[in-house]
Write a structure and sequence with these properties.
- The chain is 29% helix and 28% strand.
- α5 runs antiparallel to α6.
- The C terminus is likely disordered.
Length: 212
């Protein structure tokens, strides 16, 4: 099974979830459940997590080789005393004629093709990337500083030059980019090999150094 970077950085996931309300997060490594049969998967949920109810999308599949569907989930859940709510798929608000429903696959395809606007429309918010490691390069122009970005925590977009908002935390050797108005305007250039470089005002680097 090929490992992929998540769409949302683990460091940002709880923040995104809490934008919908006061929620808690528990992460199940896919490796721990991917070979469970549909029956074993529902037993695992009932015995280990002990939820009161389950909520899934209309196209949800589960169990080894995706053998389980929503009808099976409702039947197995009923046997274990679990209420299962099946929700309609969220329609896409993208205007480029892409997928009719919002989906993680659609978001990944949009990012891979450098279409960050479509990715944002599918997500319902601007895409945000966290790079865990940065390397100071040089001052490239009057008032601008260039930084190499490595170790992305989640999927960055494909090749291109992007106008972003950025926040640099030198104490954690990390940088986040997105469209948060509290961040400083910057540009990120990503080449075909996935290498990323950030240009931001030198004053922002000095401010981060002062905080660190």
């Amino acid at each position: 099974w090929q490992r992929r970077l998540p769409l949302v950085a683990p460091e940002h996931r709880l923040e995104v979830l809490r934008s919908w309300g006061n929620v808690q997060e528990r992460v199940l490594p896919f490796e721990a459940v991917r070979e469970l049969t549909p029956e074993e998967f529902v037993d695992f949920l009932a015995d280990e997590l002990r939820p009161r109810a389950l909520v899934c999308g209309a196209n949800f599949r589960f169990g080894f080789r995706a053998k389980g569907d929503t009808d099976m989930l409702q039947a197995l859940g009923k046997q274990r005393g679990l209420t299962v709510a099946v929700e309609d798929l969220v329609p896409s608000t993208a205007s480029d004629g892409g997928e009719a429903q919002a989906s993680s696959t659609g978001v990944r395809m949009a990012l891979a093709s450098s279409n960050v606007n479509s990715a944002a429309a599918l997500l319902g918010r601007p895409h945000r990337v966290l790079w865990r490691s940065v390397r100071d390069l040089c001052t490239v122009a009057s008032g601008l500083h260039e930084i190499e970005l490595t170790e992305p925590s989640n999927q960055p977009p494909g090749e291109g030059l992007y106008s972003v908002s950025a926040a640099l935390t030198l104490a954690a050797s990390a940088i986040a980019t997105g469209a948060d108005a509290s961040f400083v305007p910057a540009k990120v250039e990503i080449n075909a090999g996935g290498e990323a470089r950030l240009q931001l005002p030198h004053a922002a680097v000095e401010a981060a150094e002062a905080v660190a």
